[in-house]
């Protein structure tokens, strides 16, 4: 019996019960669709976040207070330690960090802002005049915070577009005064709408001098973070070591394992976030793949029922000269065809839904979320579908091939 004839017989067997074949395919479709969507949307999220980290600038080094957690017992250490004014002064000295081209202390938190009868709770971001350059976000209206306003703890604020809209819909707040924690702040600038496309959501932010945030809003003396801009990209590694040496000396630390701070470059952030997102995507894809196994078990059950129902057909074919190998091949082909069709439909459905979701996120929510066709997941989906068909089709096929033609013909 030729392979073409075997394929025709297998297709004929599937066509005799289209409803059952369709329901059998459904399990594979769901599994492959889930894998395609998880991988595609995971890649979209990964590209969005990594792209925004890159937008901060390759020459910016972040200093994070607290011992960086290496296990569950270290988590509390990140909450207790902090960076102080003395650290800022030491890092600002050229002899300590010679390649630093600017340093910005950062303070942030949440506080209620109000304008007339309207209230809103934005993220308060305290920084310096370097905010615009470091994060590449300049006021669309008005101006940036000045160095003198930072030194004088001035009550000035730059509003994100969402904050401005929430506090005064349809009203230009530039030059107006809003209240934050009972103090009147002059609105000196309004940021352009970013649509949440930044790693930091500037739309939902009110930017003030860090000195103002420390003294009048949060009542603290430490910093939540320090950002240092390096003069040249090739000096980043040297500057990292200078920062560590300066802070270890200031904090009387001799063992690097006991550092009560973390130093993070853009490359570190990209690597860390990329690893986390890739691992999460893989985990979700594996969870989605469980449905393929469930679909495979469904195929095996359906094929066993089919073998029982077609016992007389099997006996007749054997009586006419079909060998056990021919019967085995026929039922294996039926199982593989079912999973193959399910895999192809799943790939098309998963890709279509992923594209639609990416389009909605990009256009409705304003995120720079691009659609990524997951070639690797597609190949994996096809391969897994075929393997599932073979594995879960072997037992029913062997059972069919082992039937005696005389007993099969007598089967009622």
Average of per-residue pLDDT values: 79
Strand content: 5-15%
The ordered H/E elements are HHEHHEEEEHEHEHEEEHEHEHHHHH
Radius of gyration, in angstroms, nearest whole number: 32 Å
Give the N-terminus to C-terminus distance in angstroms: 27 Å
Number of beta strands: 12
The helix fraction, in percent, is 55-70%
Which structural class do you get from the secondary structure elements? alpha+beta
For the biggest sheet, the summary is: 12 strands, mixed
Give me the number of helical elements.
14
List segments where confidence is low: pLDDT < 50 over at least 5 consecutive residues.
Answer: 71-79
| Backbone shape | elongated
Descriptive labels:
412 residues; alpha+beta; 12-stranded mixed beta sheet; 12 strands; elongated
Would you kindly provide a written description of the structure presented here, covering whatever features stand out?
This protein has 412 residues and is α+β, with helices and mostly antiparallel strands. It is 56% helix and 15% strand. The protein has 14 helices and 12 strands. Strands 1, 2, 3, 4, 5, 6, 7, 8, 9, 10, 11 and 12 form a 12-stranded mixed sheet that branches. The longest helix has 44 residues.
